[in-house]
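Action item from last week, closing it out:
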Amino acid sequence: MSDTITSETLVEAIVETTVWVCQYDNCLRKRSQAVLAAFNQIELPAGTTVSAGNCQGQCHIGPNVMVVRTGERTLWYCEVKPEDAEAIVQTSEPIKRLLNPRLHFFS
C-alpha cells in the first residue's frame, strides 16, 4: 500500500470555493435572503461553502454573489435569482448572463 501523493490528489485537496451572497440593504430589498436560502438548500460540491456577505459595492444591480475559487479569478455575479444557485456552484465556467458587466469586461 502506498501513500503517494499525486498532483491530481494535491489539486483536489486544495481546491475550495467560497460563495458570498450579499445581505446588505439594497440586495436584501431585491430578495438576496431568498438567494442565500436557495444556496443553503442545494447539495454543494465538496470543498464549497456559502456565507452571508457584506455589501459588495454594486447595490444597483443586486442581488450580488461573489464566487472565490482557489487558484482562479473571482467571479462577481449580479441580479442573481434563487433558481441560479445550483448552476453557480455546479460549474467552474463563468455564467455570462450573470457576470457583473462593470467588473467583467471580457464578456
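Closing note: Strands lie at 17-22, 48-53, 65-69, 75-77.
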